[in-house]
Amino acid sequence: MTDPTADVPKPDDRYTSRRLILRLWRGYLRRHMPMMALAMLFMVIEGSTLGLLSYMLMPLFDRVFVGQEAGAAWWVGGIILALFLTRAVTLMASRTILTRVAQVSSTEMQVDLVRHLLTLDARFFQRNAPGSLIERVQGDTVAVQGVWRTIVTGASRDIVALAGLLTVALLIDVVWTLAALFAVPLLVAPVALAQRYIRRKTAQMREEAALRATRLDEIFHGILPIKLNRMEEYQTGRFRKIVDRIVRAEVKITVSGTSVPAMIDIVSGLGFFLVVLLGAADIAAGDRSVGEFMSFFTAMALCFQPLRRLGLLTGAWQTAAASLERLYRLFDTPAEILPPARPRPPPAGMPDIVFENVHFAYESAPVLRGLDFRAEAGRTTALVGPSGAGKSTVFALLTRLEEPQSGRITLGGVDVAEMAFADLRAMFSAVTQDAALFDETLRENILLGGNAPAPDRLQAVLDAARVSDFLPRLPQGLDTRVGPRGSALSGGQRQRVAIARALMRDAPVLLLDEATSALDTRSEQLVQAALDRLSRNRTTLVIAHRLSTVRNADRILVMDQGRVAAAGTHAELLAGGGLYAQLCRLQFDRDPES
Ligand code: ADP
Which of 111, 333, 461, 570 is the most buried (most CB within 10 A)? Predict the structure, then answer.
């Protein structure tokens, strides 16, 4: 059973910082270790130049300025110049490697996420809006870049720099160093608080970003109803509310992130204050030289930048962790409808379709209650019934987009649950009401990633589907783009493209959901002619909305409340009166006998 609360993130010890970084390390960071080691080497060199630089102030003051030794200015100046050159080279080298690795690893995660999402059930996609999933794939995976670039490597460079600078400071005077650092323990509690706050706010902000993407998706997909109902202001207002909340959250996250380096500043100020007092006394007493004090002071001052950056990193990690948690929750969402462990081969030739006592409910309300029927191989079976009777659900179960709670569905004697997904789905061509076209060329929409067929076969398919009839009127023929969801084609044209697709697939079973929206008579005739060609030599299951379809069907199943209420030919059922006669009058809106 699905857990209805599954989408509400609960605090979960699977997603602690430690576990997140471990998973990330194993999944995406470890494989880049050699390159990262090289980048870190460059950063360590870059970081250590700071310590050396501050150390050089000692000879600069004591030997060049105060001692005025001959030639000392040359070698001291030369070393300082060399240190800067080293910094320039190592900076470029490490940034180049880091950027590449950060981009590559986040892209790897994006690809893995898309691959995983594609294994999930149809129902998952009903629960999770496209916009929100787009935001996760595009927005949250950027967190991986942040982890490599700023956190792992930035931290290592700054820690090395700090270690070097502190060594210099300790070498000069242990007491001064301890005095400078005395206030550091005061930081622990506020930093921990700030971290927790940032993690919570970021999680909220990412959720809002997902909502923003969902709104945009709905606005652009619903542009016609929005315009026709004059909802422009309303939609803009809703969008504005979401982005306002994002702005507030972003500001809070940044401010709390900066509070950590700010606290470090205060603590450092206190330390410096003490050091100045101590240093003044020591120099006055003649225990220390001005050069020593300048070296020490510079070393401590240079600690600032890396310390501040390390302070910011705590926030940066929490931001990344919030995104990572969302990503890993997705990765940890399993498919509910699984392929069989030991798949059976699909039936050969044209199969029959058998439903045996199938019970099914989407959430709790039962949709199918013991559905039993057999659709003969090579024949056309029409499904009719009032709206909501469960006709479309039959298609979903047959193709295993949904799984029945009980009962058996077989295709040529093989249980659909025992076939590999690829084998099962290769059995069907589906032509449904919304001929779901992609924003690609007509050719790509017909071939659907399959190999290009021989030209005469393609021509035969185009003729049979009556696509050839309108092809000459398209600006680039088969290479014309059909627009988002096929919006550049008319309803009848879209259906004929869908029929061409199905002919191209040449699958043994045809699932047909007739359009309810009326086509004009000419289009309808063309579509009908194309469909007749398509259903020849196939086991056809059709959700019928046209009188001509039910009349031509070999057998009609009248569905009502999740069961087959009656079955037979058009004439038989009409003679029996009841639901079928009633449906004919209502749905087909003509006298069925005429
Ligand atoms: P028909 O095709 O006969 O009109 P359907 O098979 O589409 O009927 O739907 C049967 C019932 O299942 C309806 O009551 C419908 O509201 C419900 N239903 C369909 N799809 C879903 C879904 N994805 N989630 C929840 N309920 C659904």
Answer: 461
Ligand 1 pocket test, candidate residues 358, 368, 393, most atoms within 8 A of CB: 393
pTM: 0.80
pLDDT confidence of residue 10: 61
**How far, rounded to the nearest angstrom, does the alpha carbon of residue 33 sit from its chain's CA centroid?**
26
CA-CA distance, 490 to 501, in Å (whole number)?
Answer: 17
Whether the pLDDT of residue 356 is over 90: the answer is: yes
Tell me, using a 6 A CB cutoff, whether residue 202 lines ligand 1: no
Question: How many angstroms separate the CA atoms of 212 and 247, rounded?
Answer: 12
DSSP-based helix, strand, coil % in the chain, nearest 5: 65, 10, 25
pLDDT band at 419 (very low <50, low <70, confident <90, very high): very high
* Residue of minimum CA distance from atom 25 in ligand 1: 362
Pocket residue to mutate for ligand 1, from 392, 541, 563, most atoms within 8 A of Cβ: 392
For residue 386, the ligand 1 atom closest to its alpha carbon is 3
Is the pLDDT at 156 greater than 80, yes or no? no
Q: Report which protein residue has its CA nearest ligand 1's atom 15.
A: 388
Q: Is the pLDDT of residue 4 over 60?
A: no
Pick from 562, 591, 147, 151: which is nearest to 368 by CA? Answer: 562
Structure token digits, residue 153:
């490597």
**Stretch 158-186: mean pLDDT, rounded?**
89
CB atoms inside a 10 Å sphere around CB 447: 20
Q: Are 494 and 435 in contact (CB under 8 A)?
A: yes
Distance from C-alpha of 301 to C-alpha of 532, rounded to nearest angstrom: 84
Question: Distance from the CA of 5 to the center of ligand 1, in angstroms?
Answer: 22
Nearest-angstrom CA–CA distance, 445 and 227:
29
How far apart are the CA of 390 and the centre of ligand 1, in A?
A: 6
Joined together, the tokens standing for residue 127 give: 């629960």
Q: Ligand 1 atom 5: the closest Cα is on which residue?
A: 390
Closest residue by Cα to atom 22, ligand 1, is 362
Closest atom of ligand 1 relative to the 394 alpha carbon: 6
Query: Ligand 1 center to residue 127 CA distance, Å?
Result: 15
Question: What is the DSSP-derived secondary structure letter of residue 52?
Answer: H
Q: Which of 208, 25, 72 is nearest to 132 (CA)?
A: 208
**409 C-alpha to ligand 1 centroid (Å):** 19
- pLDDT band at residue 160, thresholds of 50, 70 and 90? confident
Mean local confidence (pLDDT), 281-287 = 90
Residue 3 is predicted with a pLDDT of: 42
Range 252-268 burial, b when 16+ CB lie within 10 A, else e = bbeebbebbbebbeebb
Q: What are phi and psi of 327, to 5 degrees?
A: -65, -45
Is 389 near ligand 1, meaning CB less than 6 Å away? yes
Strands (E), 339-431: 353-361, 366-375, 380-384, 406-411, 414-415, 428-431
Phi-psi region of 334 (alpha: psi -120 to 50; beta: other; left: phi over 0): beta
Q: What is the residue with the minimal CA distance to atom 16 of ligand 1?
A: 388
Q: How far is the CA of 224 from the centre of ligand 1 (A)?
A: 25
SS3 464: helix
Q: How many CB atoms lie within 10 A of CB 128?
A: 18
In whole angstroms, how large is the CA radius of gyration of the chain? 35
Helix and strand element counts for the chain (H, E): 21, 10
